[in-house]
Amino acid sequence: MRMKVLILTMTLGERSGWGRHAQAIIDNLILSGVEVEVCSQDTVEGLSYPVYQLAPLHTYALWALIKNTLMVRRRARGVDVVHALEGWPLGVYAWGATIGRPAPFFMNGVGTYSVAPLYAAHKRWLMRLVYRKVKKVFCISNYTMQELLKAGAPKDKLTVVHFGTPVLPVPSPEETVALCRYYNVTPERYPILLTVGAIKDRKGQLYTLKATEILKKKYPHILFIAAGSADDTTYVPALKAYAHAHDLTGNLLMLPDVDDKGIACLYAQSTMSVLASTNQEETHHFEGFGAVITEAYQFGKPAVGSRDCGIEDAIADGVTGLLARQEDPEDIADKISRVIDNIDVFSRNAKMRYADFSWDKTVKTYIDFYTRYVARKKHS
After folding, report:
1. How many CA atoms lie within 13 A of 48 on its CB side?
2. What's the number of domains the chain is made of?
3. I need a surface site. Which of 37, 129, 172, 331 has the fewest CB within 10 A?
């Protein structure tokens, strides 16, 4: 069935996880024969599909919410499906665009921006309307689905569809050596722990650094690399201060601006990925899945990550890595050590698991749902 889909995303920028996910979804829809148009807060040059720009939305900018909803409603005229890639505010735009129209809308449940608005007094009433009208919410992990259920989302609207994983460019051995020299990752460094993602409290880099301090007794040349945005003006200095106070300056490398080739090089050179994410109960922020873990699987790198969040779907505990208690450096260090002790087995399993998280598979599931609801509408 030939169909036209309007995708709503906050960004298309490849330097952000959201942008990479959006582009992967769009590319795979197009490869499957779906006609795509996009509404995004930013635009990228040279794309093969039309992109319409959304106004930036601030917390209380009601005018921007209304303006964007009306713009999306205009662009949704004549499409078969509207798909919002996150709950707030994209789900609101999709809801407003499909009122009184036959096109169904779908939404991704990624984590914080799907769950937290259901607890916010000034957003909750709108989001309840969104969840009432949406056909399906594609939760990226079982944990995200559980959190949505606790927040009052209707069970029959929720289903788990894991995010896919992008295929990163594999650097040649010569490129790896050159890039590692550029980043000052010398050959004697072992083990190399890698966290990819914004350097901030929720990603738990401080707990990984504390685990590094414990492991340094056994591995004096251990290196913890935190690759990601260093814009957090409180957390980043605190991380540096801890490293300085505990003689870890030489064991911590922060890389705030690394492109895909550089990230691929770091994965290739690392021993494992570590994502010690923490749940922030007051704000309902949590790790929705942990796509950087499945990214590392492409390079045969196992992982250590936090329990009680979406990472439980990314790591097959005891197979592709180990799960550790949140905010517990001793347990994180123990799990890292156990993975190192069986690195060949864990690495082999991680490489095999990579194929389970493909964007092709994810997008085919989306299209199956689109088709089911579009066909149902046409026959009603």
Report:
1. 10
2. 2
3. 172
CATH number at residue 91: 3.40.50.2000
| Amino acid identity at 218 | K
Q: Tell me which residue has tokens 């720009």.
A: 53
The pLDDT tens digits for 297-315 are 999 999 999 999 999 999 9
List, as one string, the DSSP characters of 127-159: HHHHHHH-SEEEESSHHHHHHHHHTT--GGGEE
Q: Whole domain around residue 194: which residue ranges?
A: 173-356
Written in H, E and C, the secondary structure of 287-342 is: CCCCHHHHHHHCCCCCEEEECCCCHHHHCCECCCEEEECCCCHHHHHHHHHHHHHC
Quick check: pTM over 0.70?
Answer: yes
Edge-to-edge strand ranges of the sheet holding 303-306: 252-255, 223-227, 192-196, 272-275, 303-306, 321-324
φ, ψ of residue 317 in degrees (nearest 5): -60, 125
Query: What residue type is 12 in one-letter code?
Result: L
Pairing mode, strands 136-139 and 158-160: parallel
CA distances to 7, 39, 360, 366 from 29, rounded to whole Å, are 10, 15, 9, 9
Q: Looking at the structure, do residues 137 and 186 belong to the same domain, yes or no?
A: no
Q: What is the pLDDT of residues 211-228, one digit of tens each?
A: 999 999 999 999 999 999
Contact 258, 289 (CB under 8 A): no
The tens digit of pLDDT for each residue in 314-324 reads 999 999 999 99
* Coil vs helix vs strand at 173: helix
Bridge partners (DSSP) listed for residue 199? none
Burial 300-339 (b: 16+ CB within 10 A, else e): bbbbbbbbebbbbbbbbeeebbbbbbbbbbebbbbbbbeb
Indicate whether 281 and 299 sit together in one domain: yes
The order of strands in the sheet holding 4-9 is 51-53, 35-40, 4-9, 81-84, 105-109, 136-139, 158-160
Backbone angles phi, psi at 65, to 5 degrees: -60, -45
Q: What is the distance between the alpha carbons of residues 159 and 145, in angstroms, rounded to a whole number?
A: 7
